[in-house]
TrEMBL record:
This is SDR family oxidoreductase. Belongs to the short-chain dehydrogenases/reductases (SDR) family. InterPro entries: KR_dom, NAD(P)-bd_dom_sf, Peroxisomal_Beta-Oxidation, Sc_DH/Rdtase_CS, SDR_fam. SMART domains: PKS_KR. Residues 5-198 form the Ketoreductase domain. It comes from the Bacteria. SUPFAM superfamilies: NAD(P)-binding Rossmann-fold domains. Pfam families: adh_short. The lineage of its organism: Bacteria, Pseudomonadati, Pseudomonadota, Betaproteobacteria, Burkholderiales.
Amino acid sequence: MLEGKVAIITGAGGGIGRDIALLMAQQGAKVLVNDVGASLGGEGRNAGPAQSVVTEIETAGGVAAANTDSVADASNAKRIVQNALDAFGRVDIVVNNAGILRDRFFHKMSDDEWDAVLKVHLYGSYYVSRAAAEPMKAQASGAFVNMTSTSGLIGNLAQANYSAAKLGIAGLSKSIALDLDKFGVRSNCIAPFAWSRMISSIKVDSDEQAARVEKIKQMTPAKIAPLAVFLASDSARDVNGQIFAVRNNEIFLMSQPRPVRSVQRSEGWTPQSIAEHAIPALRPSFHSLDVSADVFSWDPV
């Protein structure tokens, strides 16, 4: 499905990114495997993970190259895209997958923990997408696959930085879809459920959390890759600006914010009339303080 296309996949040295890289190569794409080889918190550099995936692709008969630039820097992001252009002559696909975690309850979060996660996830997705937009626009084709999360779309505890970044990515993806649609360039999101290095860092301090982790372990990163390949392919030419979730063998189309209920007064509102009339009318449609596990409460199939 991707014969003749060139894909950039960030954070592809392991986990979800690795499986997407392997399947895209299997489906005919030439792949630039980007990974800085950092720790889960973003520290350190190691060229090994990216090169290891390149070796896997080449051993299977595919074509790939490694890149170890950080997506969190605008000049490095430009270098990632230029690396793909130099190696393969074009850029057709960008999968914004790179990420780190620095989980902390909001009232305990440091500025550095906030900045680091936003830089890799949200800024990184912007920087790489912005650099790739020019060649895609010039060739009048291209596809972005952006990794969001139910942590942002729904919510999770102790992840204000990650949640803000992932919900921001959903907004960024929609904006890219709107702005570049007339140039034949598409942008969609995937919220993945999969056992990965990031998920393995979740602190387990209750039987309930342990049971949830055991469920997540059943969901391998390879389950995410088929949807990413489809969204990057010409078969998805009419799929743009959407948010999907993948949970083992289930694929979901996620809702996007729209008005739920309204109230109106011809004379306008006062704080008192809002308290007495507006809120009681709207309250039945309020959203509860759900976390992702509350919404996706059934066992994966």
